[in-house]
Amino acid sequence: MASQSKTEKMADQVEALINQFGYDLVDLEYVPRSKQIRVFIDHLETEASDKGAKSTITLEDCVRVDRCIGEMIEADPDYPEEITLEVSSPGVNRALKKEKDFKRFKGERISVNTFRPLRAEELDTQIKVSAKGQKKFQGILQGLDESSSKVILELDGGRVSIPRELIAKAHIDFEF
Fold first, then answer.
1. Which residues contact 176 (CB under 8 A, 6 or more apart)?
2. Measured between alpha carbons, how far is residue 115 from residues 55, 135, 169 in Å?
3. Which among 37, 141, 58, 151 is positioned nearest to 99, based on CA atoms?
4. What is the DSSP string of 41-82?
5. What is the pLDDT of residue 50?
6. What mean pLDDT is reported for the chain?
7. Where are the domains of the chain?
8. Nearest to 124 by CA among 95, 155, 169
9. What is the pLDDT of residues 30-43, one digit of tens each?
10. Are 153 and 91 in contact (CB under 8 A)?
11. 130 Cβ neighbours under 8 A, 6+ residues apart
12. Contact, 97 vs 27, CB < 8 A?
């Protein structure tokens, strides 16, 4: 079994802590060079549905989570002494990282970047893709095929199925 990176270990600790208070960890970024931790939170799905579909993260939510994480960091000698902690909402262009994100945001317009160009046969599609492949996709999220772990997008020309392990970055593509 591979050992966890420092960022993955932090994310696991933070997620376990904030879940107790009804928050979900959307993303965690650790920048060792500047000793900075950025935490993006949302309400847990059950909490959000109790508060209404448009429940948003408030400043008070961020302060509450900041205090909880700050106490955890101070008590853990594995964290650097001088660290900057930022807690915020994921914003309108929120990252999609977890399996549940690709289910929850079905029907939303999203952007996906892959680690390398993908050819048509890798995308299970008949749409025209350059012979060199394609790395950037924008379309309507149709969901996640759990059996193949592929994210399904409806593009202008048809559907594509993108293997999750090849997704470098995915986020909601909010249009103003």
1. none
2. 33, 7, 8
3. 151
4. EEE-HHHHHHH-TT----HHHHHHHHHHHHHHHHH-TTS-SS
5. 46
6. 87
7. 6-88, 99-172
8. 155
9. 888 888 999 999 99
10. no
11. 117
12. yes
What is the CATH architecture assignment of 6-88? 2-Layer Sandwich (3.30)
In angstroms, the CA 56 to CA 1 distance is 38
Tokens of 69: 């994480």
Say if strands 150-155 and 134-145 run parallel, antiparallel, or are unpaired.
Answer: antiparallel
Structure tokens at 15: 């997620």
For 61-109, the pLDDT digits (tens) are 999 999 999 999 988 888 777 889 999 999 989 999 999 899 999 999 9
Query: In whole angstroms, how far apart are CA 71 and each of 14, 25, 99?
Result: 11, 17, 30
| 3-state SS class at 68 | helix
| Topology classification of domain 99-172 | SH3 type barrels. (2.30.30)
Rg (CA), the chain: 18
